[in-house]
Design a protein that fits this description.
The protein has helices spanning 30-35, 71-75, 95-115, 121-127, 161-166, 222-235, 249-271, 277-288; strands spanning 2-5, 9-13, 17-22, 37-41, 45-51, 59-65, 87-90, 134-137, 142-145, 149-153, 168-172, 176-182, 190-196, 213-216. With 291 residues, it is of the alpha+beta class. The protein folds into 2 domains: 2-127, PH-domain like (Roll), CATH 2.30.29; 134-288, Roll (PH-domain like), CATH 2.30.29. The strands form 4 sheets. Strands 1-2-3-4 form a 4-stranded antiparallel sheet. A 4-stranded antiparallel sheet has the order 8-9-10-11. A 3-stranded antiparallel sheet has the order 5-6-7, covered by helices on one side. Helix 7 (249-271) packs antiparallel against helix 8 (277-288). It is globular and about 60 Å long. The relative contact order is 0.12. Pfam families: DUF4429 (PF14472), SHOCT (PF09851). InterPro entries: DUF4429, SHOCT. Residues 11-105, 145-233 form the DUF4429 domain. Residues 261-288 form the SHOCT domain.
Length: 291
């Protein structure tokens, strides 16, 4: 197994999958700390970009994925270095090893192209986001996503009067056409916005008054809302998608295990005080009803 250590974490390649594990110390970008780790099938890699270091700048290694496989670029098309989970940087003393690692990846990608491998882009995208449910905290309130529903709750000290009066708003994933995410720029707030099917949004819409938005002020919640935006995007489906095939026994077993995994994750959030007793009970009941 080939391994490459960089400033933000470690990449491992076993011939089929690149495992990206990020460091947890403070100098690691907040997005990568929130993400923890992810896996990328080599068949999902469109190209490998390696840039040697120059003067004081170190080397850079970036993966470009096949269309629709990267949910982060879908909501953040022009990422800065601290918001690109598929970028690894390192110092000059490890440049030769990094170049060799990049060459190994390029050879593997070329082999997959020759074989005509075509992975499911949606499945790849879901493998790049954390396990559900997710919660994002901002100065305006919080967002919650469990794979079926997105809920915004405006109970923070920077929530507008209108949002404070509204308190909460929920959106079924089936009703969401797309997700938008904006980083805070100068005096403009950042936000996560869900766009329902048939809705019309404009650049002039005020996110702080928009009930489809969860806003960020400063760095608080910025990485968490980006991860949530990517996670929602990864779980969206076209409205006219064909009906799902019949469920087999194996599919049923996998679905049951997934439900139990989500209940355990809900329990962890409840134990940490991130979900109220009522919220935990409601979501647990909804999941158990699917068994």
């Amino acid at each position: 197994m080939d391994e490459l250590q960089g400033n933000q974490g470690t990449w491992r390649f076993d011939g089929e999958t690149v495992r990206l594990r990020y460091r947890t110390h403070r100098r690691t970008p907040a997005l990568l700390r929130a993400l923890g780790e992810c896996r990328v099938p080599i068949a999902a890699v469109r190209s490998v970009e390696f840039q040697p270091g120059f003067q004081k700048a170190g080397w850079r290694l970036r993966l470009r994925l096949i269309e629709d496989a990267n949910p982060y670029s879908a909501v953040n098309p022009s990422p800065e270095d601290d918001s690109d989970p598929l970028l690894l940087k390192g110092d000059s003393d490890s440049e030769l090893l990094a170049e060799y690692f990049a060459d190994q990846l390029e050879r593997a990608v070329a082999s997959e192209v020759e074989l005509g491998s075509a992975p499911d882009a949606a499945q790849v995208a879901r493998g790049l986001v954390p396990s559900l449910p997710l919660r994002a905290l901002t100065a305006e309130g919080d967002g919650f996503f469990d794979g079926q529903t997105v809920r915004f709750r405006w109970n923070g000290w920077l929530a507008s009067t209108s949002k404070g009066n509204e308190r909460t708003r929920e959106f079924a994933v089936a009703d969401i056409a797309k997700v938008e995410w904006e980083r805070q720029q100068a005096m403009e707030v950042g936000f996560l916005r869900v766009v329902p099917h048939g809705a019309v949004t404009t650049a002039m819409a005020d996110p702080e008054q928009d009930f489809t938005c969860l806003c960020t002020h400063g760095s608080k919640g910025q990485a968490q809302t980006l991860v949530m935006a990517a996670a929602i995007t990864a779980h969206l489906r076209p409205r006219d998608e064909a009906a799902a095939p019949a469920v087999t026994a194996a599919d049923s077993d996998d679905g049951t295990q997934l439900i139990y995994d989500r209940i355990r994750e809900l329990g962890r959030l409840h134990k940490e005080g991130l979900l109220t007793d009522e919220e935990f009970s409601t979501k647990k009941t909804e999941l158990l009803d699917r068994l």
